[in-house]
């Protein structure tokens, strides 16, 4: 089967909101519907022309349980367009892009939307073992966010425990400086990508319509907290074949060249990120020196620096900041990273996005900027 060229026509995201902050009352499905509407508006693609919608979500609420299709319908788009949801913890959105990439590259589809969304504000509490035996001793509410951190590996381990095992209990001066630098770099993001940020709104009973149009996280974050904070939000990318991009007269942002995945010890999941990049570059006959820019998931500064050290080379590292500045949205982070990566490249340059998740899974993506 002939391999089709895969184009990223456009990418958008909502503002990143602090859990319990200005976006607290907006459901993840509403955030997802907002980016879907904006993406089609910006590209001029008719909704009925979309072949498939794929969405990542790491922390689904009990409603809905298939945001990939539900958000599409909530946006008022044609029921004939199918959609589904993937879950890969922090790699969820990049997995959605990967799925869409292979659908197009294989010739099965021509236009796909890949997205991701999570609302930490709306993440539910649950009870276990009470369906048939609702005993008083079982009436304990479990925070699904805390449970998700610990239950993605045979030996439960939280992000904080993983960090301590890998890097010790205290943040180093070097790591604190990297985190502060990430927040300083992030100030450039709005100037380069402001048109790709989709304002979202809701109606407050007392205050009327509340519009959120800017990220909440960059100001006031402590550089002494080693781990990136969480953020509510959604992101989406429109992918097409090369022929469809020409047919619709699109000005593509980038060409998606490929992906690779890798696994490692769940207690040191960051090692899977660099392993995925090395695997991907080997497949394409490339070396690290061929890359102009790296976008590495900022779970912590120490993890980023360890990953960059394992890869070597002189590529620019996270030039527009990362999750230490903006906050980390597990469902949508991969697309937010691709947005920053593409904005950091010059036309013709190659860049790689490197992400890992709890359980010891890594994923890497390679792009070439086109315009």
UniProtKB/TrEMBL annotation:
Its EC number is 2.3.1.9. The keyword RNA-binding does not apply. It is an enzyme of class 2 (transferase). Residues 6-229 form the Thiolase N-terminal domain. Keywords: Acyltransferase, Transferase. It comes from the Bacteria. Residues 250-368 form the Thiolase C-terminal domain. Belongs to the thiolase-like superfamily. Thiolase family. This is acetyl-CoA C-acetyltransferase.
């Amino acid at each position: 089967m002939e391999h089709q060229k895969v184009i990223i026509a456009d990418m958008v995201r909502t503002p990143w909101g602090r859990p319990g902050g200005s976006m607290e009352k907006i459901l993840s499905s509403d955030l997802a519907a907002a980016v879907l509407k904006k993406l089609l508006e910006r590209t001029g693609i008719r909704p009925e022309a979309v072949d498939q919608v794929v969405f990542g979500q790491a922390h689904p609420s009990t409603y809905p349980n298939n945001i990939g299709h539900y958000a599409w319908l909530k946006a008022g788009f044609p029921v004939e367009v199918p959609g589904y949801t993937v879950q890969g913890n922090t790699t969820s959105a990049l997995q959605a892009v990967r799925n869409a990439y292979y659908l197009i590259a294989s010739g099965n589809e021509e236009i796909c939307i890949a997205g991701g969304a999570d609302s930490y504000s709306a993440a539910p509490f649950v009870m276990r073992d009470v369906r048939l035996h609702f005993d008083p001793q079982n009436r304990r509410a479990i925070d699904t966010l805390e449970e998700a951190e610990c239950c993605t590996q045979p030996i439960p381990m939280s992000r904080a425990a993983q960090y301590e095992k890998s890097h010790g209990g205290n943040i180093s001066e070097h790591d604190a400086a990297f985190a502060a630098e990430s927040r300083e770099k992030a100030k450039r993001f709005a100037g380069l990508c402001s048109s790709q940020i989709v304002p979202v709104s809701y109606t407050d009973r007392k205050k009327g319509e509340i519009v959120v149009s800017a990220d909440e996280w960059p100001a006031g974050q402590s550089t002494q907290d080693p781990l990136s904070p969480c953020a509510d939000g959604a992101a989406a990318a429109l992918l097409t074949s090369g022929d469809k991009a020409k047919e619709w007269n699109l000005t593509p942002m980038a060409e998606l060249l490929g992906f690779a995945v890798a696994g490692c010890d769940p207690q040191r999941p960051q090692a899977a990120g660099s392993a995925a990049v090395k695997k991907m570059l080997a497949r394409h006959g490339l070396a690290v020196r061929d890359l102009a820019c790296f976008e590495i998931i900022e779970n912590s500064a120490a993890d980023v620096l360890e990953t960059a050290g394992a890869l070597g080379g002189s590529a620019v590292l996270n030039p527009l900041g990362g999750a230490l500045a903006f906050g980390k949205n597990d469902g949508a982070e991969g697309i937010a990273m691709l947005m920053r990566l593409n904005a950091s490249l010059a036309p013709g340059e190659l860049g790689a996005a490197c992400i890992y998740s709890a359980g010891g899974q890594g994923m890497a993506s390679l792009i070439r900027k086109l315009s």
